[in-house]
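User: tokens in, sequence out, please.
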């Protein structure tokens, strides 16, 4: 099994859309599964820090902001983004 540092580097490559070998992908998937287990264990039994409705409201605001910025970007001339 690759070291944690190597797995972090593979994660970095994957997030940059660089190609991974099948073995690297398998190792990274296993590492992700382990990270998920650890996160679930760490969060188990903890009460939510904010009510769910407040979090949903924050997501709605962020989504609206993202849509606005996306629309603004789409109106830019094609050559401006190069």
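Assistant: Sequence out:
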């Amino acid at each position: 099994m690759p070291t944690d540092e190597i797995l972090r580097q593979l994660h970095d490559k994957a997030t940059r859309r660089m190609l991974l070998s099948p073995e690297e992908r398998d190792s990274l998937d296993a590492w992700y599964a382990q990270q998920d287990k650890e996160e679930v264990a760490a969060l188990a039994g903890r009460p939510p820090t904010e009510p769910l409705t407040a979090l949903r409201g924050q997501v709605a605001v962020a989504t609206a902001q993202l849509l606005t910025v996306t629309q603004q970007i789409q109106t830019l001339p094609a050559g401006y983004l190069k």
